[in-house]
Amino acid sequence: TPEKPVPDEPNGKLSIAVLPFVNMSNDAEQEYFSDGITEEIINVLTHIPTLKVAGRTSCFTFKGKNQDIRLIGQQLNVNHILEGSVRKSGNRIRITAQLIKAEDGYHLWSEKYDRELKDIFDIQDEISLAILKEIKIKLFGEDKPTPLKRYTNNLEAYQLYLHGRFYHNKFGGAEEYRKAIGYFEAAIALEPDYAIAYSGIASCYLNLWFYRHLPPAQSLPQIKQATEHALRLDTQITESYLALARMQLLYEWDFAGAANTFKKAMMLPQTTAELHGQYALFMSLSDKHNKAREHILSALALEPFSLINNFYASYIYWLAEDFDKALAQGRRLVELEPAFWGGHLVIGLNLITLKNYTEASEELKKALQLNYNGLTLSAC
């Protein structure tokens, strides 16, 4: 089986997962608001240094599923769960939230918030900070001020950005990345200084190049331009440094430059699962396999259901010549998402190394059928 993240220490670090708040309204358009509330709460909780917060991708895996809280806690490796709902009626909105102990399903705290729907962002901020305060008091017995970073006040631009992130995070083919770019560009058209949307564009173009969907001449200039613009607007966004570091590492092979950029990113208050995963890849390519393993486990602890982090974990084990573990990681990927090409690719490549050519050929053909790109073609 794949290596599992180390569980929380008994004395130790408190942890929490925020499940997607349920949209109880009859209006499907309110789904963005309930998702926005969830993301904002995850965002503010990550500012508590002594609290481990499960990543968005893994939390949203449970959206629309009615699973036992205790089982969810085990799968996400957290000891607390926050869940809630959003109901809109006319000009009024009601938000409920419950803090639950994952071990036994015991409710530690619950609250309802009734508000007028005048300013969605003000409501998001107010509810997020109110919930944050209660969690800090219940879990830590204190309430210290926590900064709340808002990337935009434009609701329509924010919704477009969320659409872009949705397609970006599918980790699919060229069509998904192009859709994501379209949404990011639409968000920027409404909000020209939307720094994190530029970071999204840079990441999409880098993936289009890396997976051989675009030649360097059609992707690298866009990566550089978007990254430079993002950092010029805001030097405190992890995603901007991550896009730059990936370009330096994967295209320019500028290890010194990538090391410096990763260092800046790791010093920011919010170190994401994706950052740990990409830094693990950098450490692995630098032949620092123990450090790489440390960071990929940090990534998987935050985002155990992330396809991209599980994919890179298998690659890191492969580079360390731990082929059995790499193969097990590939099988976990297929278990997580059978329609994801990366799991079949990983299994096939490792079976070649282990000289199981028949099964390897079958898996690589599956990968090619699911996603016809440069990596799957070269493997076949």
Keywords:
globular; single chain; 380 residues; alpha/beta; 6-stranded mixed beta sheet; disordered N terminus; 11% strand
Number of helices: 17
Q: Residue-averaged pLDDT, rounded?
A: 85
Inertia-based shape: globular
How many beta-strand segments? Answer: 6
Based on CA atoms alone, the radius of gyration comes out at: 21 Å
Report on the structure:
- A hairpin with a 4-residue loop joins strand 5 (92-101) and strand 6 (106-116).
- The protein has helices spanning 31-45, 56-60, 69-76, 120-140, 155-168, 174-190, 195-210, 220-233, 238-250, 255-266, 273-285, 289-302, 307-319, 323-336, 341-353, 357-370, 374-379; strands at residues 14-18, 22-23, 51-53, 80-89, 92-101, 106-116.
- It has 17 helices and 6 strands.
- Strands 1, 2, 3, 4, 5 and 6 form a 6-stranded mixed sheet that branches.
- It is globular and about 60 Å long.
- With 380 residues, it is an alpha/beta fold.
